[in-house]
């Protein structure tokens, strides 16, 4: 347990879920893309083995006492397993270079059995990393996996811009792709759940920044709902993270059945609280760029204070988090500042005066 | 009886606006065959349709997918009309040139593509360097074509410093005074724009057109 805390993250989460007292607010800065830097590895070193992937996450936890550790299956895993060409940069997150599927008519030529744990070494590696984390620190801290939702996974197989056009021109072919991708994701989600891992389902490409709400309802919602049913059936927990603006689809997204919703900083916490706060706990949403990347320690403190002020009274509960994954060029001191501020302003019982809350 | 010019111009505009990317080919051909002015077909027909689509986008009636398909229709029409433009049609008129690309290290290019389409529609001569563009290439291209404007896009925070670098390179080469720099993309903000001395930031493709015109003085009498 972190020296400044009185409870382990597991105890804290348990208390949160059952409405018991906690020592401080749950704090989940999303430390995925930056974890390697915290422990002095390159990104390539981190992703080179299960041991390193786990060591980076455990290192973060030991340093910060953050309330979740997150293994990275990533957003492009399905495409990668099928043959999408990925970069292999020394020190950043690999990006798609060339999607495997050029023409939706060739969908049947793809061998989706390549995405299963029997055939995908990357899935094996990240499952192993989960096992290591569970074994070493699992009695203290929850372990999660960052993995794509249906639409983003489809975009790892077939280029986004083409897929957007195809939603108009040949919607049935987009559905056929989503059908296969969703079925593949189901198996993978269950693999992680069987390791006792929380699912952090991210679907940035389906956010309102790219899709019209009607497109979300037609091309994302049915598949996301199915995936959440699968997670529930497997007795897993699903935290939905949506990058981008979801103001127009927040009810649809929550309607897919996630256990918690993590929002981007472009969505106002007050708005989310008002709209869906009586349905599920909210996570968010300190600006990872404006504040964590470019801000000073003082600005990080102020942003954490403001975010707690907005979210603390969410009817179904509130977890302090960053609005998105924390990028690797964020100054490490700002993560220290985030956790320091979480312990200061989020200490229970909350000091309303300190938070600037008027009674 | 053949259709009037106005009728066909309206049809060209409608084809773009209503995303009829196949029908537009025969309409554009019919327009040419009737002997009407191809330049007018572009400006009063195709561009008019794209501008209407832009207005709908601004009002959130149209979305990114719609703009993409409207632009497909516009380009299909352009393919028919452009070869018939008289070579020296625009002589004497200032052409505004713009270099655009996604900075090195980033391959996300939907935003860049939309801005390119909208600027092209607005009458800019566009030089698209694509995605993952080595920073030096922006400078070289600006120099080569004597561009008035350079647009830099990125979705990733790790590649943002590349924008700053391009501004610095323009300064070093004494090109900063004459070439305006516009930036955009997910993590970009006005604050970042001010911080790196870029000339402007726009949150979306429609705003980008207004900003670009303002920065280069397009449409403002000298």
Tag the structure with descriptive keywords.
heterodimer, A: 359 residues, alpha/beta, TIM Barrel, 8-stranded parallel β-sheet, two-stranded antiparallel ribbon, 48% helix, B: 222 residues, Methyltransferase, Methionine Synthase (B12-binding Domains), Chain A, domain 1, Rossmann fold, 2 domains, 5-stranded parallel β-sheet
SSE order of chain A, as H and E? HEHHHEHEEHEHHHEHHEHEHEHHEHH
Q: How many separate structural domains of chain A?
A: 1
Low-confidence parts of chain B lasting 5 or more residues at pLDDT below 50? none
Termini Cα gap of chain B? 46 Å
In the predicted model, the low-confidence regions of chain A spanning at least 5 consecutive residues are: none
The number of helices of chain A is 17
Structural class of chain A: alpha/beta
What distance lies between the first and last C-alpha atoms of chain A, to the nearest angstrom? 34 Å
Radius of gyration of chain B: 18 Å
Number of helices of chain B: 9
Number of domains of chain B: 2
Give the CATH class of the largest domain in chain B: Alpha Beta
């Amino acid at each position: 347990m972190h020296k400044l805390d009185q409870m382990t993250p597991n105890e804290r989460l348990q208390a949160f879920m059952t409405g018991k007292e906690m020592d401080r607010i749950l704090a989940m800065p999303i430390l995925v893309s930056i974890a390697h830097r915290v422990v002095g590895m390159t990104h390539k070193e981190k992703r080179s083995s299960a041991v390193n992937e786990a060591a980076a996450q455990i290192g973060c936890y030991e340093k910060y006492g953050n309330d979740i550790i997150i293994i990275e299956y990533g957003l492009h895993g399905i495409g990668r397993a099928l043959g999408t060409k990925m970069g292999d940069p020394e020190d950043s997150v690999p990006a798609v270079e060339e999607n495997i599927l050029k023409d939706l008519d060739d969908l049947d030529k793809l061998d989706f059995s390549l995405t299963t744990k029997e055939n995908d070494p990357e899935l094996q590696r990240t499952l192993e990393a989960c096992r290591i984390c569970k074994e070493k620190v699992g009695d203290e801290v929850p372990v999660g996996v960052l993995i794509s939702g249906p639409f983003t996974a489809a975009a790892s197989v077939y280029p986004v811009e083409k897929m957007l056009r195809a939603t108009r021109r040949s919607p049935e072919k987009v559905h056929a792709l989503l059908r296969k991708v969703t079925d593949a994701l189901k198996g993978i989600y269950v693999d992680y759940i069987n390791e006792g891992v929380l699912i952090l389902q991210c679907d940035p490409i389906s956010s309102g920044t790219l899709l019209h709400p009607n497109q979300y309802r037609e091309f994302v919602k049915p598949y996301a709902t199915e995936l959440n049913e699968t997670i529930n059936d497997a007795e897993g927990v699903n935290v939905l993270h949506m990058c981008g603006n979801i103001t127009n689809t927040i009810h649809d997204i929550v309607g897919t059945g996630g256990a918690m919703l993590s929002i981007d900083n472009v969505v106002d916490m007050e708005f989310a609280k008002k709209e869906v706060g009586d349905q599920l706990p909210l996570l968010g949403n300190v600006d990872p760029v404006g504040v964590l990347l470019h801000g000073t320690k003082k600005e990080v403190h102020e942003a954490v204070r403001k975010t707690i002020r907005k979210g603390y009274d969410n009817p179904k509960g509130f977890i302090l988090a960053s609005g998105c994954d924390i990028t690797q060029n964020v100054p490490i001191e700002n993560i220290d500042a985030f956790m320091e501020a979480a312990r200061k302003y989020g200490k229970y019982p909350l000091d309303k005066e300190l938070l600037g809350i008027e009674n | 009886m053949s259709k009037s010019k106005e009728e066909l111009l309206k049809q060209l505009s409608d084809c773009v606006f209503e995303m009829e990317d196949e029908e537009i080919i025969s309409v554009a051909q019919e327009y040419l065959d009737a002997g009407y002015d191809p330049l007018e077909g572009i400006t009063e027909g195709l561009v008019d349709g794209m501008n209407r689509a832009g207005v709908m986008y601004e009002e959130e009636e149209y979305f990114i997918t719609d703009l993409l398909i409207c632009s497909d229709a516009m380009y299909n029409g352009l393919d028919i009309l452009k070869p018939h433009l008289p070579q020296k049609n625009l002589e004497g008129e200032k052409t505004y040139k713009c270099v655009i690309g996604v900075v090195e290290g980033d391959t996300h290019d939907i935003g860049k593509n939309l801005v390119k389409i909208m600027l092209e529609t607005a009458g800019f001569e566009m030089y698209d360097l694509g995605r993952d563009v080595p920073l030096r290439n922006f400078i070289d291209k600006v120099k080569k074509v004597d561009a008035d404007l350079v647009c830099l896009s990125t979705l990733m925070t790790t590649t943002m410093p590349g924008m700053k670098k391009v501004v610095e390179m323009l300064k070093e080469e004494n090109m900063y005074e004459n070439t305006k720099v516009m930036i955009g993309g997910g993590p970009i903000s006005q604050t970042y724009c001010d911080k790196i001395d870029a000339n402007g930031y726009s949150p979306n493709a429609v705003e980008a057109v207004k900003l670009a015109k303002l920065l280069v003085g397009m449409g403002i009498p000298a």
